[in-house]
Fold this protein.
Amino acid sequence: MPLVPLAIPQADVWFDAAFLPPDEAAALLHELSATIAWRQEPIRMFGREVLQPRLIAWHGDAGATYRYSGLQLEPEPFTPTLHALRLRLQQATGAAYNSVLLNLYRNGADSMGWHADDEPELGPTPIIASLSLGATRRFRLRPKAKTSFEAKPVSLELTSGSLLLMQGATQQNWQHALPKTAQAVGPRLNLTFRRIIT
Ligand SMILES: O=C(O)CCC(=O)C(=O)O
Ligand SMILES: [Fe+2]
């Protein structure tokens, strides 16, 4: 299916609910869960060190160092599987990616808090291609506090095999999050392909 634009003011967000067929998404979830060197990183929160409520991995071309939440991530090389996915996403989105942040949400207690991916190394208009595998989780978007436009928060169910593309002014004007859920859900693996300006 093609990417379709979502009607979100002052943002540039596209969605394809079925970028990968379900069987391929399931096989990828299985392979990546078992082969990626997952880590749980400490981050600074309100001056304290806590563990991130999810597992992560950072892969990229040489020099694609990513700094966020007090972390400095040096890239592991692209694996053949990650490289093949990169090529397909480049084809589908018409952009070039040199890195990918992988997030593994082990169950409904794992989450990601409100943030914008607006670090300087992503440039003024970051482009992020986000592929979801496994359990369906709700993704939320809300306008940043200091915006001049009126808009309601947006909720999106990210199903297995779906592709979400955020580009243009999205990170300047909006924040996003993946809240915890009290429902019994299995693991969800998310890959966000990015372009780090090196
Ligand atoms: O898991 C998701 O869908 C969101 C991930 C995300 O926002 C990020 O990696 O910056
Ligand atoms: Fe993000």
